[in-house]
Amino acid sequence: MNYFDHYHKAQEIWLKHLVDCAHENDIYFSQTEWTAAKESFEYSEQIKILEDGSIKIKWENGCWWADCKHAAFHGQYYCILAAVDKVAWEFPYDLAKRKRGESEQE
Fold it and tell me: Pairing relation of β-strands 45-49 and 54-61?
């Protein structure tokens, strides 16, 4: 799975939690609130470089209401790790050129 697969999986789990928790608490929300909840998910992402050199990415997002029975767990938590030594670091311009298929000679 790549980063985007994990992002969508974490979002899917969180949205399911949001709906289930709302149902448990007899809370109903409008389409506007649903859209805002989905958009807020991107702000739940946290990236940290650990001492061993790996990258930790986590998505942690709670419910929007005080009656959440899962509040002690802060809603949903999804985390992945990646070893940095397997990543090829590039400057943005060089990456853009490589993706376009340009050589360094041009």
Answer: antiparallel
Say whether pTM exceeds 0.85. no
Residue 86, φ and ψ in degrees, nearest 5? -100, 5
Backbone angles phi, psi at 88, to 5 degrees: -95, 110
- What DSSP string describes 24-64? HTT----HHHHHHHHHHGGGGEEEEE-TTSEEEEEEEE--S
Kindly report the number of other CB atoms within 10 A of residue 47's CB atom: 8
For 56-72, what is each residue's pLDDT tens digit?
999 988 777 666 766 54
Longest dimension (CA), the chain: 64
Structure tokens at 60: 């942690």
- Which residues are paired to 76 by β-bridges? 61
Burial grade of 72 (CB within 10 A; 0-12, 13-18, 19 or more): exposed
